[in-house]
Amino acid sequence: MKPEALAVIIPAMNEADLVGDCLDAVITAVSGNRVPVAIVLVAHHCSDDTETVVRKRFSKLSGLVEGMVVRLDRGSVATARSTGTMAGLYLLAAYGVPFDRTWLLSTDADSRVPADWIDRYRRRMDRRTAALTGLVHVSGCENENTQDDAHEAYHHLMRTTGPHAYAANLAVRADAYLDVGGWPDQVPGEEHALLEALRHNHWPVVPVPDNVVTTSGRDTPRAPGGLGELLGRLRATHAGVPRQALRSRP
């Protein structure tokens, strides 16, 4: 059973420089879908021109795709994701689509989804799945000439630890999301807490490893405990360590 409505939720904190590319990628990914789509950008503690950039992009939307900017000056990024999700469900309410046919997709304002992001997830969206998890690629790691020690250490960490989930690349069915109470107020790791709650309530979580979102490789974090903070720690820890040594570590 294919989805009849989609909501894409994007929190942003002072992302005027990157959010335009993020939205261009999301709009490309949702174009051509013959179902209602709500794109919600949560301007979280923003003091730059993020909202202006977003509203300009949203002014060009047409058809079944609708955009909303939500200004939020409280809480954590988990609060922003939760607020944006409820706003997305509000936008879609007019279509009367049941929650078990509505999917909530999550990404970040410093990320770029692939053009077939929705298509790759839609192939797995049915009653046998309640959540789908994709992977992320850290920008700046495309080749040996641009890959620094922190990025090498990050990929080593990803290769040698367990399954990974990212709020920058996640889809959850609305009925399952509401059943577990939505995004837990836990930062960092709100995506892991959400998925754990789903599993605890026997909602199936399915990895989709061929669906990859590109995310920023910056080490100046917007959210405490996020990828930027991790890269900053890795850069400090592995400064001067030869890449070959990083690759050979068990």
Automatic annotation (TrEMBL):
Ranges annotated as spanning the membrane: none
Keywords tagged on the record: Cell membrane, Glycosyltransferase, Membrane, Transferase
Gene3D superfamilies named in the record: Spore Coat Polysaccharide Biosynthesis Protein SpsA, Chain A
Keyword Cell membrane carried by entry: yes
Location(s), subcellular: Cell membrane
InterPro entries (alphabetical): Nucleotide-diphossugar_trans (IPR029044)
A Pfam family matched in the record: Glyco_tranf_2_3
Protein name, UniProt field: Glycosyltransferase family 2 protein
